[in-house]
Amino acid sequence: MAGRFAVRTWGLAFALVFGGGCALSAEAANRTLTTDGSQQAQEIRIRLQRDYLVFAPGSIGGAHNLNFLVDTGTVPSLISRKLAQKLELQGPEVEIGIWGARTKVILVTLPVMQLGPLKVENLKVFAIDMQPMEQELGTRLDAIIGLDALSPTGFTIDYVRKVISFGTSDTTGMVVTMELRDSPSPYVVVLAEINGKQAHLLLDTGAGNLTLLDLRAQALGLMMKTPRWGANTAGSGELIPIQIKQLRLGGNTLRVKSVFVRPVPQEALRDFDGMIGPTSIGIKRLTMNFQTKRIYVELRK
Question: Residue 224 has what pLDDT?
Answer without folding.
Answer: 66
